[in-house]
Write a structure and sequence with these properties.
By secondary structure, the protein is an all-alpha fold. It has 6 helices and no strands. The chain folds into 2 domains: 101 residues, no CATH class; 103 residues, no CATH class. Helix 3 runs antiparallel to helix 4. The two termini are 26 Å apart.
Length: 206
Amino acid sequence: MKVTKNIFWYLFLFYFLVHLVLFPICFFYTNQTIDLESFGISEYVKDYLSRICSTLLTFTFLLLLSLKKKFYLDKNRSFILFLLTTILFFDTLGNFFGWFDVNGILRFLWFDDVIHFFSPILVSLSCIWYLYVVEKNEKYLSLVTASCVALTLSSIWEIYEYWSDRVYKTEMLKGGIEDTMSDMTAGLLGVIFFSICFCIVTRKSS
């Protein structure tokens, strides 16, 4: 496969560059060097500097690892990398533009609900792609494994939100235990939705 056709690798690089640009913007805004309020950026960004720094370090590590392992030559690995970092990308955008503080999307959905619904879907798809498509493992074993990984990471994310509030002084757990249960329920529904779609698609293809 030619490198020029690996669109997923370039999308990952785009995600990395966005974080590379947003970090100094957050830094200068936090230090009151620049004013972003006229562009609709909320003051929540000032509490997000530590987290975006951690996310940028994660992207840097993944970039160096990908270059060393030559993921850009492998479309499957690049696709999985793209799926997983898409979660981080939209989490960053949500925090930077204050979308998590929006009361509702379409009058009943929070951006937070959308993220917690689709993130396990992307994780499940990543696992399925590796286990079932690449490694050719048994279909239902791959599905169960992918579902378990997605639900586990969804639970770990809730733990991360708690410690992010404690360490970074963010406000991720706005509704306490109710917010946590809502997020985990959205994640469970995402896994169920993906499982149903996967079974339908694979049944038709077989």
